[in-house]
Write a structure and sequence with these properties.
This protein has 114 residues and is α/β, with parallel strands linked by helices. It has one domain: Rossmann fold. Helix content is 35%, strand content 16%. The protein is built from four helices and four strands, in the order βαβαβαβα. The chain has a four-stranded parallel sheet, with helices on both faces. It is globular and about 45 Å long. The protein starts with a strand and ends in a 16-residue tail after the last helix. The model has no long low-confidence stretch (mean pLDDT 93). One of its GO terms (cellular component) is cytosol. Its EC number is 6.3.2.1. One of its GO terms (biological process) is pantothenate biosynthetic process. InterPro entries: Cyt_trans-like (IPR004821), Pantoate_ligase (IPR003721), Rossmann-like_a/b/a_fold (IPR014729).
Length: 114
């Protein structure tokens, strides 16, 4: 299993697969994987030649005072679980990779009444 932490490495790997005409499925997660996640990986394997699973605990998905700091971080166990179901690639970037300007620099759009 490829284990990637940067976007350029992921893009390069995906480009190789695309050049061979392989279909690629993406399973985004926040880690702390369980049987349900692995079932999603297996379903992805049934419809694509390659499967990429991300493990990224997104700080923007937590409101102030919520459990971001205590959310389980089980990357080693997640990696082993993904290897056990023959996942092709794990993408586990740091927050600085996804939000190079910091998570506070995101753009938000609010639509009144929605």
């Amino acid at each position: 299993m490829h284990s990637l932490v940067d976007v350029n490495g992921l893009r390069s790997l995906i480009a190789q697969w695309r050049a061979r005409g392989e279909r690629i499925a993406f399973v985004p997660t926040m880690g702390n994987l369980h049987a349900g996640h692995l079932a999603l990986v297996q379903r992805a394997q049934a419809v694509a030649e390659r499967v990429v699973v991300s493990v990224f605990i997104n700080p923007t998905q937590f409101a102030p005072g919520e459990d971001f700091d205590t959310y389980p971080r089980t990357l080693d166990a997640d990696r082993q679980a993904l290897e056990s179901v023959h996942t092709d690639a794990l993408f586990a970037p740091d927050i600085s990779v996804i939000y190079p300007g910091g998570a506070q620099s995101t753009t938000r759009i609010e639509v009144p009444g929605v």
